[in-house]
């Protein structure tokens, strides 16, 4: 990923916080000589060395991904930024947050490992609801799922959130984003450009 200096995020704690909150993305590998992508949610291991996920068994990506280097892409809020929002001349652009994770994928053949993945995913997202659904996956269901882990070898993180503009331009961007309903992106611009307390 091309990352100019202004937009390069290297703080590991920040990066993994972003991954936890934006965990739905793409796993990209090669299948019969072509790039292939599946959109799925991911889990981070406690030691932050691995990602976990699962495919439907019928998904052809699961058939030869074992041992491949893969790329996982994740993104946060994004949106168009008009040059009319700046005090000084500018060009149209797009603000966004993105993380690319590289690693070696390993298929997990044991049903117990698959069950752990689907239970953790269900618990993570069910806890947001007042009526909680208790995961209850039997062996028959689990046989239709292929679990995997990715041993992380590299992470790239880019927040393109008007860091290269003046403070007044950034305030204008935040205001216009809020006015157009892009509150998540406005919050990201504000948080990224706030002075860090040391």
Structural description of this entry:
The chain has 198 residues and is an alpha+beta fold. The protein has one domain: Pnp Oxidase, Chain A, CATH 2.30.110. Helix 4 packs antiparallel against helix 5. The longest helix is centred in the middle third of the chain and has 16 residues. The model has no long low-confidence stretch (mean pLDDT 93).
Question: Could you give a short description of this structure?
Answer:
The chain has helices spanning 12-21, 111-126, 139-142, 167-179, 183-193, and strands at 24-31, 34-41, 43-44, 50-56, 69-81, 93-108, 145-160. It is an alpha+beta fold and 198 residues long.
Looking at this protein, list some descriptive labels:
198 residues, Pnp Oxidase, Chain A, seven-stranded antiparallel sheet, 5 helices
- The helix/strand series, from N terminus to C terminus, equals HEEEEEEHHEHH
For the largest beta sheet, what order do the strands appear in spatially? 2-1-5-6-7-4-3
Largest sheet features: 7 strands, antiparallel
Beta strand %: 35-45%
Shape-level CATH architecture: Roll
Structural class: alpha+beta
Quote the distance from N terminus to C terminus.
Answer: 29 Å
**Percent helix among the residues?**
25-40%
Fourth-level CATH superfamily: Electron Transport, Fmn-binding Protein, Chain A
- What is the number of strand segments? 7
Tell the overall outline: elongated
The helix count comes to 5
| CATH class wording | Mainly Beta
Tell me the number of structural domains: 1
Oligomer description: single chain
Mean pLDDT: 93
Q: Briefly note the CATH topology name.
A: Pnp Oxidase, Chain A
